Amino acid sequence: MGEIAIATEKLTRTFGALTAVDAIDLKVQAGHFFGFLGPNGAGKSTTIKMLTGLLAPTSGRVELLGLDFQKHPVEVKCQIGVVPEGMGLFERLTGVEYLRFVGRMYGLDRATTEKRAEELLGFMQLADREKTLIADYSHGMQKKLALAAAVIHGPRILFLDEPFEGVDALAAGALKALLGRMTERGVTIFLTSHVLEIVERRCSHVAIIHQGRLVAQGSLEELRAGVAGSEGETKTLEQIFLSIVGQSGAEQARLEELTWLT
Fold first, then answer.
1. What is the edge-to-edge ordering of all strands in the sheet holding 80-83?
2. Cα Rg of the chain (Å, integer)
3. What is the 3-state secondary structure (H, E, C) of the chain?
4. Could you tell me the domains of the chain?
5. Using CA atoms, how far apart are residues 63 and 233, in angstroms rounded to an integer?
6. What is the pLDDT of residues 172-204, one digit of tens each?
7. Second label for 13, Cα 20 to 30 Å away, from 19, 114, 147, 211?
8. Distances from the Cα of 138 to the Cαs of 120, 167, 242, in angstroms?
9. What spatial distance separates the first Cα and last Cα of the chain, rounded to whole Å?
10. What are residue 71's phi and psi, to 5 degrees?
């Protein structure tokens, strides 16, 4: 096994009586494009918030790039990039002002920050919005700016929570190409998405969380091997997901109750 970029040990988060994430042990090798899947409310966003320092675990530990996150928070955060679900952009700045701020916060010198901001805005097709406040960006434009801010310092791990939501097909294609080049350079990408086709095409390894517990983890081939099917059949990620999570039968039963539609 190669270098482990992301590792958790009994990672747990509770909110009162609710256990959102229940003692998960996760391992992601460096350079992998890793998909993290689960139904709504399964604990995906809570997990990614703990992995990136946005939320403290109730118990357990997180280790990124061989460093204990709790003991070395600044060192870890300097080496990761994050596009969170809510993005959290400073909307009263322009795009270039925001990237300048982020670059300087990561310790980049002024010349490097200016050069990278210019290149990223051009790549994201935002260069013509130099005087537009982020508050006036569309949702898709804000998503692209959030990704630009997440990579401006050249992170070794990139966390993406639904990165393609609200992004048009042309921009999504460019972003996928960028992410592919990053993994070729050894960057680890941790992706959560409800679009299983994207995960199946892009990710080499996948973990599935259900009701706060990790119910599957491994390469797509390993997950396919663990799900029964007809001889010679190649199961899609959607079929694997439904088989493991076990919702397909329940969904069919509820559908049959809607006699006025079916």
1. 80-83, 157-161, 188-192, 33-37, 205-210, 213-219
2. 20
3. CCCEEEEEEEEEEEECCEEEEEEECCEEECCCEEEEECCCCCCHHHHHHHHCCCCCCCEEEEEECCEECCCCHHHHHCCEEEECCCCCCCCCCEHHHHHHHHHHHCCCCHHHHHHHHHHHHHHCCCHHHCCCEHHHCCHHHHHHHHHHHHHCCCCCEEEEECCCCCCCHHHHHHHHHHHHHHHHCCCEEEEECCCHHHHHHHCCEEEEEECCEEEEEEEHHHHHHCCCCCCCCCCCHHHHHHHHHCCHHHHHHHHHHCCCCC
4. 1-79+155-167+181-232 (3.40.50.300), 89-154 (no CATH)
5. 38
6. 887 888 888 898 899 999 999 888 888 888 898
7. 147
8. 17, 10, 33
9. 50
10. -85, -25
Report whether pLDDT(251) > 70.
no
pLDDT tens-digit readout, 111-160? 999 999 999 999 888 999 889 999 999 888 898 899 999 999 999 999 99
Return the structure tokens found at 75. 């060192």
Closest by alpha carbon to 70, among 51, 97, 49? 51
Q: Give the least confident one: 17-26, 59-68, 237-246.
A: 237-246
User: What value does the mean pLDDT take over residues 55-76?
Assistant: 95
Contact 5, 187 (CB under 8 A): no
Q: Give me the residues paired with residue 184 across strands.
A: none
